[in-house]
Amino acid sequence: MATARLAGALVLCVVFMISTVPEAKAEGEPDGSGQMFDTIAASYDMLNKIISLGRDEAWRLDAIAELHMNEFLADVDPAVETVRVLDVATGTADVAIAVAASTPPHVVIDGIDPSINMLDLGREKVAAAGLRDRVTLQVAQSEMLPFEDETFDFVTVSFGVRNFRDRLKGLGEIARVLKRHSRARLVILELSEPTDGWLAPLARFFIHDIMPFVAGIISNHPKEYRYLQQSLEAFPQPHKFGEILNDAGLVMVSHRRLAPFGAGPDLFVVRKLVPMQTENAKEAQESAGIRDEL
Ligand SMILES: C[S@@+](CC[C@H](N)C(=O)[O-])C[C@H]1O[C@@H](n2cnc3c(N)ncnc32)[C@H](O)[C@@H]1O
């Protein structure tokens, strides 16, 4: 039992450190410019790996699996159709690379991020993986995506929504560029302050009193981590986030936590609302049975 609790505490520690750097002006309010991530880009991947004990990669793969791309790909003729994926807040491109590595060549991925330094590192990784012809990275913000309406079959956002300057606008832009076919999906990995599960009080203790300090020391960027607690606190709980998705023209299909005891990141599976569904968005969300695996 003691070992299980210790393991749980370790998971909590890891989870809230991987939340990394909140991009903040004050009180956990993000500025959405990428500047703060430019500062810590060089140590970003290494820090994530160390503090997550490698779990960050598994979480991203869990998110990609929720796209159920293979079911869609089975119906696509590679000779006539290119399947397009957008990774918003791509950072150093881990999700973009993982999607490309696990799909056939007619799947192409665009990654956008406002941080030039994060993207430079991402481009090196894309080149090293031999994926330059399939993964394109460019500087942009979620609030103004440089793509035509209904361009993408799938969209991913991994630990990025919390950093959008204007969350509603950013999600609205994602809704705009997402196609409306029945298999089109958006998956979002994100962190919020834990309120459920028996480890929640311990998790909050880590967030409020331990993590900003520890993360600051490990990263050697204490200022950049100052807003960790505020940013997590400021991010809405899943039911409230579902309402924001609705306002942005999206609907939550499912939600679950990726680590046990309610301590891990949230994984949201989302689809686009078509006009006739808009009035019934909340009912659709409720009847979809949003899961919360604690
Ligand atoms: C915690 S990192 C996540 C990076 C990557 N997705 C991952 O899983 O490691 C958050 C990213 O959000 C980006 N970001 C900040 N403001 C943004 C905005 N307005 N639109 C899109 N991305 C933004 C940052 O530059 C940073 O690269």
TrEMBL record:
Single GO BP term: ketone biosynthetic process
InterPro entries linked: SAM-dependent_MTases_sf (IPR029063), UbiE/COQ5_MeTrFase (IPR004033), UbiE/COQ5_MeTrFase_CS (IPR023576)
Keyword list, A-Z: Methyltransferase, S-adenosyl-L-methionine, Signal, Transferase, Ubiquinone
GO MF term list: methyltransferase activity
Signal sequence coordinates: 1-26
Top-rank taxon, per record: Eukaryota
PANTHER family: 2-METHOXY-6-POLYPRENYL-1,4-BENZOQUINOL METHYLASE, MITOCHONDRIAL (PTHR43591:SF24), METHYLTRANSFERASE (PTHR43591)
Record protein name field: Ubiquinone/menaquinone biosynthesis C-methyltransferase UbiE
Originating species: Porphyridium purpureum (Red alga)
